[in-house]
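[step 3/7] fold_predict: job queued, chain A
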Amino acid sequence: MTERRDSAVIAQQLQHRSVRRYLDAPVSDAQLERIVHAAQRASTSSNLQVVSVVAVRDRERKRRISRAIGGRSYVEEAPVFLVWIADLARNAAVMRAGGAEPETLGLIENTLIGAVDVGIAAQNALLAAESLGLGGVFVGSVRNNPEAVSAELGLPRHAFPVVGMALGVPDPEEGTGVKPRLPLAGVLHRERYDDRAWRPAAEEYEADYERYFATQGTPGRSWARTVIGRLATAAGLHGRHTMRASLRAQGYDSE
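[step 4/7] structure written:
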């Protein structure tokens, strides 16, 4: 049997790790533009292109955003902080310019389109950044206080900050490894969902998870306890349990 060989893209994807510490080195405008251009080539629902991104370099603006979302040193220290926007404002303007009133923007389907398209585009962007020797981390904490982030960035109605991304040249002293994932047997279903398949995979992953974090200096970590802490009660959402009100404030009624 011929030995399996990954493509260069897959090899890059399998080495992904979150990077939260950066060297004192810039991310150039040329790099930023190539990264966002790669993000634009991601699939987009019905070619609606409902994604925008705000690149923040100003130190004080990064500091204000960091404070608003709970204090994130990697937001403040990254050379550039990207905020990925579900942007139906542009589409609304296009419709009105064409003599049509945008009647469906408050429907939950369009909320989902915005969130899905942002996720696809932003992952394209991070992979592109990593291919250029950069590293980064997704920052879901922008949703801890989307009203403040929207105000800081001057977002119009029908534009919502879905996720942030800190980018920079990785500090090799950070030492973060490639975090394990659930075994494939617990994720890949064939023909129909198998409610039993993930259970032994989760048990295996619990051990892998604890071993990984022991190498990172935090022994005794548990994936199951992490899930419980994050999802069992509203406290684990860090203020995001009010997301419906936050969405409505930006014109996403999600009805």
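[step 5/7] annotate
The chain is about 45% helix and 10% strand.
The domain at 8-176+239-249 is CATH 3.40.109.10 (NADH Oxidase).
exit 0
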